[in-house]
Amino acid sequence: MSAQTIADLQQEFMAHVLDDTSALPEGWTGRHAQGLAIYRNAYRARLVDALRGTYERTAKWVGEDAFRRAAAHHLITCPPCSWTLDDAGNGFADTLELLFADDPEVAELAWLEAAMHRCFVAADAQPVDGPAFAEATGRYNENDWARLRFKFVPGMEVRRVDHDIVALWRLLGDGIGEAGKCASGAGQYCAVWRDGFKPVFMLTDTHEGEALCMMLGGQTFGEVCAHLVGVTGEGEGVAQAGAILANWLRNGLIAGLA
Question: In what residue span(s) does the Putative DNA-binding domain sit (predicted)?
Answer without folding.
Answer: 9-94
